[in-house]
Amino acid sequence: MTSSKISPWKETLKSIIAESIKETNLCPPMQLSTINLNVKRPANRSVMFRGFLGENQGNWEEERKMEEYLTEVTSSVLNPKFESDLLTITTDVRSTKVSQLLKNSEFEICWWFPSTGDQFRLSGNAYILPSPSNPLYKDFHSTNLLSPYLSQVIKFNWEQERMKYWYKCSSEIRATFLRPPPGQPILLEPGETEKQYLRQLNAISTDEEDKELVKQALENFGIVIFKVYFVDRVELYCENHKRTTWQLKKSDIGNDGEEEEWVERSVYP
């Protein structure tokens, strides 16, 4: 058993993601489970990993263009870049996974990498970051969320972070946030065909009509941030298989209170 204040599983996971992308040109989807309190059972779906909060995810030229965009749309100093183990996805804030996580923030992710034979299970608590004008914003409790990763207290611009993810979405994905709420029934009269919705949407527009569409879509666009407390990795392509767990625990550090550290264990698969 070993312990560490820095998440020891993150670099391993990043290297496996990189290997998977190298082999298949794709990052496998994550299987996200939430709790459906209405029927008292788990709800599972596939979601796409959008990177670790605070980190660069593109080349220098892409980052430069994005920073110019963020400066234009938020009119504020750019947030600092920092290393974190906070996983992120983008979402429609009207979706059932958001409503379920707002009622019970606990989650579990199962992530299978066929190119390396690794399975990761990650569990913890989720945070929903919607538009500041959305009523759900009052439920975004970001206090101390970044304290393990930033050496000093700063005024972090969460809207700028949300806009960064919006910019990185494809125009096709941005357009989906103009559609009716996910899961809403399609009700058609006899002979009526389904409405054709906009297929592409720019991150920003100078056209007044398009500006309104961007505004509407952004109201439905959000980020889910996953704070992980437990990780279970199984390696199935090695001899006899191998399994490792990491758990974030409080550690007594004397008069200064408590501090969190990761405890690693090798366990039977």
TrEMBL record:
Record-level Gene Ontology MF annotations: FMN binding
Domain Pyridoxamine 5'-phosphate oxidase Alr4036 family FMN-binding as annotated: residue spans: 7-129
Stretches of the chain forming a coiled coil according to its record: none
Matches recorded under InterPro entries: Pyridox_Oxase_Alr4036_FMN-bd, Split_barrel_FMN-bd
Pfam family name, one: Pyridox_oxase_2
Record-linked Gene3D superfamilies: Electron Transport, Fmn-binding Protein, Chain A
Highest taxon listed in the record's lineage: Eukaryota
Protein name listed in UniProt: 6645_t:CDS:1
Organism classification: Eukaryota, Fungi, Fungi incertae sedis, Mucoromycota, Glomeromycotina
